[in-house]
Amino acid sequence: MNGFNGLGLHLGNLHLLSDAKTRSTSAENFDGAKGRGGMATEGTGAGCARDLGVGWKVSPSVELQPGATFAMADIDGPGAIQHIWLTCSPNNWRNLILRFYWDGEAEPSVEVPLGDFFCNGWCERSNVNSLPIAVNPAGGMNSYWTMPFRKHARLTVENRSVKPVILYYQVTYTLTDVPDDAAYFHAQWRRSNPLPYKDVHTLLDGVTGKGHYVGTYIAWQVNNTGWWGEGEIKFFLDGDKEYPTICGTGTEDYFGGAWNFEHPYGEYGSFSTAYLGMPQVIKPDGLYKSQQRFGMYRWHVMDPIRFESDLRVTIQALGWRSEGRYLPLQDDIASVSYWYQSEPHAPHPALPDPDGLEVI
């Protein structure tokens, strides 16, 4: 194997051979078994394939009933998830809950509404052109986060809506040895709606163990007029209490922009790059859409935030008031934090009910 275990490739090692085995689950091969794809005799495409028969896109998707939980992947390891692609109607993105479980754990390591996980928290399509997350026309959602597991991986979707949902998906993974120092992938969703006056939005808290923080997505609704992004992000590491080890200088600074994201003059400049972006700017329409909404991501791929024992992450919401003073804002802020850590992990805070998840 030439020292390469098959967890992932980049251009520098793409030429190396490996004993890793590539497999994939989808509605055409639910368990990813070798030589068992495209054998369905019934499914959501059966009517369309009635003249062609088996092998002709008989089962391209699944229908999730209200309240049902479906396993997109249920895999014995060792190995690693390498790519997830899926798509469904945008109006369901907050009502579909992704949960990923590693090595038989009872509590999920990932628990996030589907749209937010893919940097689309407003239930409106927005293209994302980044390294670990890509969202392409018209709502094709892709994750390239490497997610190793040693014994077992289970990836589920819960339908919390009151209507059936059609879901197309494919989970591609490798079966290979996992190094002893490989950490487990985690992601957590939180919302402050509205953020209490003079409070901070907590992106992550209660994390214990050793690991590294690798990304932030925020869906931010501004409830005041004027600029809203003066607030600082803060990383409290390894016993930090009142004051953090890492403190940012402003919201747009953290997401890789500057000077209010204003470009050209008088407009927000949306952008989407490998590691940083504000791909979504939703403007008021003068009728029903009364607030400005933004979607922003920041991937710490080249600069992971390392922690030895514990981690807490917060961000302020600050605008301006008279006489050059800061104004603490009371905005609607929903966030996803992405990180790797050793297990066990602390349970995620309970997700709110459908009303608490809803984009309103």
Automatic annotation (TrEMBL):
Q: Per the record, a Pfam family?
A: DUF2961
Family matches, as InterPro entries: DUF2961 (IPR021345)
Task: Give the protein's recorded name.
Answer: DUF2961 domain-containing protein
Please report the organism this UniProt entry assigns to the protein. Answer: Paenibacillus artemisiicola
